[in-house]
């Protein structure tokens, strides 16, 4: 009988025990698995675009109120019916800011009519209005007649307003609390300041500023004395570029005991020393004549350190600025064109960015 040799199991009577080993992945299998991971699809929920019309009405109104009045009238109210209806609500027009109407003056839109439209939409609920450049006496009267609840009024570079127009306006605004007028040419008369103090007993803030501070050597306390006599309840007074002297300031401090802030920037006829300086130092917020005007919201220019002949032509001067030798400009030997030709290169109109 042929004998067999058992190489694997020398003892055939004892069953061979199986040993399981982990199979090592081959290079080809590992690369295929990694490729599968790279191409694995990730499912995400599809984002649905938001519809502005789905916002709550009060949220939409709050957003639109952050726009300027001009932007609402020119663009926002034309977006859709909902926005147009919201823009017509009187609550949207309690605070009117007409800041850049200058760019539409003489164009297809009438700035004055735009102002009147904004006032009409307030339906008598107007509390504050801010107008730049385009206001005149007619517009002031229109505002006063329809907005007796007005608390705050700001007029910036509105050259067509007069003392008479301001007086007629304040007579109809008994609740006015803040009056802010910034201009470079107008001088308020004593009668105007008296009318403001008389007809606006709740006035707490008065700002009367000059952009162009001309001829620092000229002194005038009429406005300061009128303020002292007629506005005893003032808390805030700003007189940038005013010509008052220490006497005028003394009168203000004596008759306005509740002042919390006093702005005397560019008031170079005032010398804050001695007892006057100590009294001013007690005011909570005090701006001194040489303090920076970068934060005042407009450009303040100072000119006229010498004689007026060296600085401005006579036609740009107030009557009080003319000296005794003003007849020089009426010399028959000097023609109109020859005289003004030297100012052509020195004077130009600058449009300030908003």
From TrEMBL:
Q: Where is the composition biased (Low complexity)?
A: 26-36
Q: Which residues form the F-box domain?
A: 49-96
Q: Which InterPro entries match?
A: F-box_dom, Leu-rich_rpt, Leu-rich_rpt_Cys-con_subtyp, LRR_dom_sf
One Pfam family name is LRR_6
Region annotation (Disordered) maps to 1-43
- Extent of Basic and acidic residues compositional bias: 1-10
Q: Which PANTHER family match?
A: F-BOX DOMAIN CONTAINING PROTEIN, EXPRESSED, F-BOX_LRR-REPEAT PROTEIN 21-RELATED
Name of this protein:
F-box domain-containing protein
